[in-house]
Amino acid sequence: MATSPMVYTIVLLSSLGLAWLLLREKVAKLDAGIAYHVAAAQRDQRKARFYGQSVWVAIAASSVGLIVTSVLATVGGKTTPISQMCAGLAYGLGLWGLMVISSVWSQVGKRVSLSNSDGKSLIPQNAPSRRDERN
Questions:
Q1: Whether the predicted pLDDT of 111 surpasses 80
Q2: Cα separations (Å) of 67 from 2, 11, 13, 74?
Q3: Model confidence over 78-92: pLDDT tens digits?
């Protein structure tokens, strides 16, 4: 009995999702031996770099999954267990990429929707520009 392509999809999606979440937790940890404000600044830089790289990796993974799925669809013919496995893995890879992209962009949306210290606006009206800070 051949294994369904959905099994391969779920296994790949679960394992890649778990790996991404574990990496995200590692990146989001504060360094213990440093002052809090320095550790928080370093953590924020790591998270920004991780999210930026995650989006590009996810776009590449989704593209590869889409290309492989479309190639398998155009080839047609008799379906073999190997082609079913490839289809399931390609579909899982594409879904994982889309889930990472949606996860990162939901974090970005959450962050930009927070109000600033004045409690009223997203961008304070009287904030100095970078040009004013250099002078």
A1: no
A2: 24, 20, 17, 11
A3: 788 888 898 899 999
